[in-house]
Amino acid sequence: MLRIMLFNQTDNLYEQGLAALENAKIVAPSPQTADIIRRKIGHNLADVDVLTISKFLKDELSVLVGDEVSQNYRGKSDLLLLLSTLWKKLGLENPSYELFQRCFHLLTDLRSFSMSDDVLETALEHFDDSIALGTIRMHQILNQLDIYDEHRSYFQLSEVLRSGEIPIDFKTERNIVFLGFDFLSASQVDLLRSYSIRDNIVLPVYQRVYESLSDWDWLSWLDSDQVEKEYVDEERPRKSIEISTFPRNYLSKSLKGILEKRIGSNTQIILGDRHPNFEKLQQANLSKAKFKASVDILSDKVNWLMETVSDGEFETTEELLDELERLTWHCVEAQDFRAIKAIQLLKNVVNEWRELSEDNETVSQFDLKIFKETLSLDSPRVSKTSLSMEKFNVEIKSLKELEDVSRQSSKIFCVSSDFTSPKGSLTTYTEGVEKYLSSIGPLRRAELEYIALREKVLDVLDENSLALIEDGVLDRDQNWKDLFDCVDLKDVSNTMSFEKETVYHPVPKDKAFASFSPFSSTKIQTYIDCPQKFFYKYGLKYSPDYTFKDRMQALELGRVQHKTIEDYVNNFSHYSEQDHWNLVGELLLKALDEKEVSLAATADYKHEIFNLTQVAIQELLRIKSSSEFVVKFEQGIGQKGFRGSIDCVIETPDDIFLVDFKRGKGSIPSQKGFKSFEKIQLWFYANHWERKSKNLCLGYICLSEMEESTLYFGSSDSKERFKGIFGAKAISIEKGFEELFDKYKEFEAQTIGRIESDQVFRAEPQSSNVCGFCDFNKTCSRAGGF
Ligand code: SF4
């Protein structure tokens, strides 16, 4: 039987839901989660056994399938060595490392859906021939050699359970709880269903996550009439927490001030980051706080070692091993123990690889890259932690340890722009592949994983909690905003004293500069971002202009994407995947004319361009099909003294819609930033475009995540006419739109006035984010240069 246990508060799940299960086996996705569950259970549930999914799998395989699987089982690093050895014999036209990597990752992904050749072949029809061939050949090799990887083990176990051929003394009717999983692949879903034939399978899920399911989510694949649902507790009441803000880069200082006022009380600091590392934890003022952060202690030594051996001219494996021996002695003399460990690991990898084939007596650069990847998988996982004879009053945790946060302590939940957004991005396939795969098994969905994370955060926060948020993050990141909209926030002040003010060296204007005209939106924006950056770029013309021969830069990729949208919409009236692929291939070929880019990278670019332009093209074709709308691209600004080109203009008898395409959401301003002219691009176009007394509409279209696109409408009629376009957020600023536009005009005129009259250009960035992306951040006066 399969039981979905719906809960709202973790405490209730443990105290009411899990406590009622006798002799339960709790299966966790990772050792860390298993530890947390053990700590939470403590001595309360003595008859409960907590284990990781890999241990569970291993135990069950040995009982149900025997030694055959364990003997033929290969982990990821073994598979890498084996398949890379066979890769060169597949007869591919260009068996590069990049192509291997792509095929290898695709293989692992697709095998999580099915082991069937037919399924893989159908999914691979949507990929480049070289990728499809490389991937299917690797899959066939694994099957021919009867190799078991993680997914084949799941499917094999499911098959045995379904067949009924199980040992007579095999225990059944067990209570097996799968706890802490945010996603299960098709092979895992299949396994759970197979177990539910004889055992009592329990899957605890937040109620709100369950209520937000779509048909292709993993939980929907488990759901059926036979599945029992059990409600553990009532809906969580709305909570109330305190909130305070801090300026960027002042998290540590701000925390210090708050902690000083709480001496003696137990406090847990929760960093709002999904991938915490030691550097991020340091932002939270580590002294006298308990923390644990994973660190890769060998990464620098592995890099050094691989660079050293890559520079050496070895032809044979024996020569490489001799060199490793020589390096070992050198490191022994230098007492560099971490380097010795890295060399030892590499020796093991090389020896293991050598035994795989007689051809492995010679070593190529391809093999060295595989060794490096294998080494990073085999490197020991260690954590840094703080030690003290005294008890810690302050503990630092991250989003990964939310279940471990103590309810009794007071909590400070920190959000800074340096942390990851709560909604991650997932690898997406083209629409055709997604459509096909979604009929075979579940697909991961960023939105569902975000909802799961939001529920965990809301579960932990209570009246003893303070949200400490960097200024402006809630305006810029809609996901954080949505999360904190679910609680009542009570503002509390957090004053910090800054005794020291630094004045950075301003750069004087040379008398030779008469005017900076003509003005473009980028030029004015650069001045708004930082006057000194502006002067370096447009005055002294220091801005480096470099292009890479072996890759495409974001700007170059952006140009091909824009051109793809423009050419498709101008030349076709209906959408066809084939025509789209052909056009992308043609334009990409032109863009790569003078470059030397590998086939695998070209295939990646092709997919990216295709994926990022598909929805925009379909939407624009839909609009264009109505005679009311006229769509034009790359429209230049004709006004004297100004320069620029608008990506797309959509005109109706009553509206002018100015559209700018962005590759990612990072360059789209928040609503507040838009209204306060932090980013002026669309306002600038509006100001210098022939409006013909029509309603103005301005829109940023985010090609990688359409739902992040933002459209502004000065009239509700226009908003209605463009309803649903691009699936974007439509914001009406009907009230006061014209006043706001007038304000912009004044702002632009004043800024241009300042640009022309400034005699010195100060290092005054609008925000420290600007410095992060500035070409001069290693040399300007703020960074200690000049
Ligand atoms: S690094 Fe920052 S302060 Fe320096 S020029 Fe660039 S934006 Fe301005």
Task: Write structural notes for this entry.
It is globular and about 90 Å long. A 7-stranded parallel sheet has the order 9-12-8-13-14-7-15, with helices on one face. Strands 3-2-4-5-1-6 form a 6-stranded parallel sheet, with helices on both faces. Among the domains are: 2-68 and 153-231, P-loop containing nucleotide triphosphate hydrolases (Rossmann fold, 3-Layer(aba) Sandwich); 74-147; 240-294 and 384-491, Rossmann fold (3-Layer(aba) Sandwich); 299-379, no CATH class. With 786 residues, the chain is an alpha/beta fold. The protein has 32 helices and 23 strands. A hairpin with a 7-residue loop joins strand 20 and strand 21 (710-713). The longest helix is centred in the last third of the chain and has 26 residues, at 599-624. The mean pLDDT is 88. The chain starts with a strand and ends in a 14-residue tail after the last helix. Helix 15 packs antiparallel against helix 18, helix 16 packs antiparallel against helix 17 and helix 26 (577-591) packs across helix 27. It binds iron/sulfur cluster. Iron/sulfur cluster is lined by residues 530, 532-533, 763, 765, 770-771, 774, 776-777, 780, 782-783.
Structural class: alpha/beta
Biggest sheet statistics? 7 strands, parallel
CATH-defined topology of the domain at 240-294 and 384-491: Rossmann fold
Report the count of strand segments.
Answer: 23
Shape category: globular
Q: Residue-averaged pLDDT, rounded?
A: 88
Poorly predicted segments? none
Q: In the CATH hierarchy, what is the class of the domain at 240-294 and 384-491?
A: Alpha Beta
Distance between the terminal alpha carbons, to the nearest Å? 72 Å
The CATH architecture of the domain at 240-294 and 384-491 can be given as 3-Layer(aba) Sandwich
Task: State Rg.
Answer: 30 Å
Largest sheet, order of strands side by side? 9-12-8-13-14-7-15
The bound ligands are: iron/sulfur cluster
Beta content comes to: 5-15%
**How many individual helices?**
32
Helix content: 40-55%
